[in-house]
Amino acid sequence: MSNRVAVVTGGSRGIGRTICTELAKCGFDIVTCYTRGAQAAEETVSCCRELGVEAYAYQCDVSKEEDVTGFFARIKEQFGRVDVLVNNAGITRDDLMLKMSEEAFAQVIDTNLKGAFLCSREASKMMLKSKYGRIISISSVVGINGNAGQVNYSASKAGLIGMTKSIAKELGGKGITANAVAPGFIQTDMTAVLSDDVKKALLSNIPRKALGNPEDVAHAVCFLASEAAGYITGQVLAVDGGMSM
Ligand code: NDP
User: Fold this and answer.
1) How many CA atoms lie within 13 A of 112 on its CB side?
2) Ligand 1 atom at minimum distance from 157 CA
3) Which residues approach ligand 1 with their CB closer than 6 A?
4) What confidence tens digit (pLDDT) does each residue in 5-37 have?
């Protein structure tokens, strides 16, 4: 019997790469995508293959409809199924609202929110055929609490939570669950740009008194992707050391 298939967007590094390898450890074949990091994405693929599963990485900008339809057409041709979709691809273009350009707002919404919509729509077509699916979107603590300097990013992450609940209501009767994972501050390229002072200030607001690792997020995703989580849908699982309490 062939493996189940997990599609993880933005798997070339950071949280996405770790989600790919942790899902591979659970026995999923992996398909991931990236925009620029072809070589890094191939490293993710190699790590997954070493774990004994099939893995592929394709260039696909999730904010572009033609890229996303092409990406899923390829997956359909290759595997004929998608069991798990992880909407992980995300960007930041931070600035205070008064200084934020329309372009910075649109870029973040298009990648983080529209991208997840386009991927969920295409993946669910295949999930509906098999009457089984797990759609997991990586939101953020700032989608729950907001954050100064991130009106675009927090709006996109809050939007993912609303979208997740709507998908859960639309597709719950068809064996498809939709959930969101809301990480706090996780050590990746995205947060490496923060100064030590900012990190220190953040730590003072985290009850667990530590920044998170990509593994912390990936383990939550693996649980929501599992058979064991079949009765959980429309939920937001915070992986934030208690930050959003
Ligand atoms: P990184 O910046 O380290 O990685 C982002 C990944 O997304 C890369 O693989 C990148 O590949 C890919 N990507 C970016 N834009 C696109 C696009 N348009 N189409 C396809 N792929 C794209 O981010 P993190 O690993 O830190 O974050 C992963 C997710 O977790 C994001 O959604 C982020 O918002 C969320 N998150 C992160 C937190 C953190 O503290 N790090 C906290 C809360 C949420 P390439 O460069 O090749 O395009």
Assistant:
1) 27
2) 34
3) 9-16, 33-37, 60-63, 88-91, 111, 115, 138, 140, 183, 185-186, 188-191
4) 999 999 999 999 999 999 999 999 999 999 999
